[in-house]
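Onboarding guide, step 5: your first structure request.
Type a short instruction followed by the sequence, for example:

Predict the 3D structure of this protein.
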Amino acid sequence: MADTIRRLTGALARDPASLAYADLAEALRRKNQREEALRVALQGLSRHPMHADGHDVLARIYADMGDLDRARLAWSKVLEIAPDHGGALKGVAFVRFRQGDADAAAAALEQALAVDPSDEAARRALDTVRRTPWAPPAPPAEPAARVTASVAAPAALRDTASFAAAAAPAPTPPPLPAAPAPAEAAPVRPPVFSGFDRSTADILLLDERGLVLAGGLVSSAGADVAEVAAAGLAGVSGEATRTGEYLGLGVWRTIVAEAESANLVVAPVGEGALILVRRDRSMPVGLALRFAERARGTASTWLAGQGA
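The system replies with structure tokens like these:
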């Protein structure tokens, strides 16, 4: 999966207008990197607002986040663009099923089967919906009845998990207590910034394809988020260059972002490569820029030695 994310990040870095954003967002979603998947999907849809598959991925992300209303709206948008989109029809069915509307869920699945009679997943999901004993909607004055109705769908899901798999990627229920799965080994990268403060936690070097070359970026929880940052930086150099040309500003040299807890410095290195440096807010911006310039010089020297 990490290789897929690197490949798609590179494709998007080479062509920020590429439809590869949808595959990248889906790959990030499958790795449970939902916030970054959401950012990639929304950014891609800002360029391609009529891309049905992009809205489909967005809906899956919202479903994973438990935001069923936004998921339904996104899948409805897909159906406005492509009325026979099987994934969106099953997605709408999934949302309606979770919300306790068996008739609407069945109708959406029947439409999916009309589009593709060979869709066995949709057929199994429809069988699940038809077998589920649904309680009538509870009146507003009886909160206890509403609670009873609200648990009907999860009970059905526990009884037949195939519906969730067929209709849409549902949020994964908490597993039973067990030994935690082994974490992915942290990638070994060249010690280009050895001697710099937090050389593998706050300095990141990317090539022209958006692939991580050296350094690293660590979240406040201690997780390696270098690949996610690479996805976020895809296309930044090209966008900055085009903006500079449009405004007659000349060649861009540095981008500085002042965030709540840190200052970020992004600068080009050679042909297409980028360096990202993060410094604590306690360090003045001027010093952060000087630190980033030293790191950029080191990266440039290393790239030249690599023949880059």
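Each response can be followed by summary notes, for example: The two ends are 27 Å apart (CA to CA).
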